Amino acid sequence: MENNVLITGGSGFIGSHIVDALGHKPECKITVYDVQPPLERSSNAALVQGDVFDRDKLLKVMRDQQISSVIHMVGLASIPACGQNPETSYRLNVSSVQSVLEAMRQCDIERLVFPSTAAVYGAANGPKVEEKVSPRPNTIYGCHKLAAEMLIHGYAEVYGLKPTVLRIFNVYGDLDKEQGVISIFVRKTLAGEPIRVKGGNQLRDFILIEDVVEAFVSSLNNGTSRGKVVNVGSGVGVSVKEIAEMVQRAFPKVEIKYEAADNNEYSIYADVSQMTGLLECQATHPKIGIPTFLDSCRLRYLGTA
């Protein structure tokens, strides 16, 4: 385990779960650097309120805490939001990466774990995608994440950075922070609204948040993942229609309204050979994990098992 880990953006959906996992490992000292750091403090975590664009402060934190590894979680992880706000997307998904990379270079920090996305593959590479295929993003979010990957690759080639890039698929498992289709359906259900499904036959790869966190932790530990791009998914394609039906089984009163499919409907799920081989991570099968998550939501909000 790298001893001194800086987590930028540690208050977000995935970042907060990484902080929780690493913060309870006594052999790992972590520093959370965020404009809104987590409220709870673990015994081995330092919480620093700061902006990644404040270079002087970022450099000071890296040096004072003797940082040896960085997990950079700052970003705008929403395809619609990035499309509506491309300048904000560029600032958070590209410029923030440049700022952190340059601070790492000045502090001689080599190790980076970076969350990219399945959106870099676009619509033309499915349904099952390997990391070696040529990315063809078809969204602003995917394009900006690919640009960030290229920046990281450049720093690896020129300055000796040792990164692991994790291309994350659809994460679920936290109703409070997750913005994916599963939690959107559950929130609609709890609000007494129908679930609307366009088409519904498109396949997506859904991975439990705990399994994503395991991939990050393993990337810190595992030297064989350095310099690699690794898909982080379940490796299983599940249709959006199936997701809606799972929600209906957990919440029988919900109504599903089907609408005509868009012309751009497509399927994509991960080849997880490197995740299971390099990182030694085995994801929960979504047809086990999703119903279990839905049951926990029903118990939490309706009080019925």
Describe the structure.
By secondary structure, the protein is an alpha/beta fold. It folds into two domains: 192 residues, Rossmann fold; 83 residues, UDP-galactose 4-epimerase, domain 1 (Alpha-Beta Complex), CATH 3.90.25.10. Helix content is 41%, strand content 20%. A seven-stranded parallel β-sheet has the order 3-2-1-4-5-7-12, with helices on both faces. β1, α1 and β2 form a beta-alpha-beta unit. The longest helix is centred in the first third of the chain and has 21 residues. The mean pLDDT is 93.
Give the distance, in angstroms, between the N- and C-terminal Cα atoms. 39 Å
CATH architecture descriptor text of the largest domain: 3-Layer(aba) Sandwich
Number of domains: 2
Assess the beta-strand content as a share of residues: 15-25%
Uncertain spans: none
Continuous helix count: 10
Largest sheet: 7 strands, parallel
Which topology of the largest domain does CATH recognise?
A: Rossmann fold
Widest beta sheet: strand line-up: 3-2-1-4-5-7-12
Overall outline: globular
CATH class of the largest domain, please?
A: Alpha Beta
Concise synopsis of the structure shown:
41% of the residues lie in helices and 20% in strands. By secondary structure, it is an alpha/beta fold.
What tags apply to this protein structure?
UDP-galactose 4-epimerase, domain 1, 305 residues, 41% helix, Rossmann fold, alpha/beta, 15 strands, two-stranded parallel sheet
Question: Which SSEs are present, and which pair or pack?
Answer:
Layout: E1 4-8, H1 13-23, E2 29-34, E3 45-49, H2 55-64, E4 69-72, H3 79-84, H4 86-106, E5 111-117, E6 128-129, H5 140-159, E7 162-168, E8 170-172, H6 181-190, E9 195-198, E10 203-204, E11 206-208, H7 209-221, E12 228-232, E13 238-239, H8 240-250, E14 256-259, E15 269-270, H9 273-277, H10 286-302
Parallel strand pairs: 1-2, 1-4, 2-3, 4-5, 5-7, 6-15, 7-12, 8-11, 9-14
Antiparallel strand pairs: 10-13
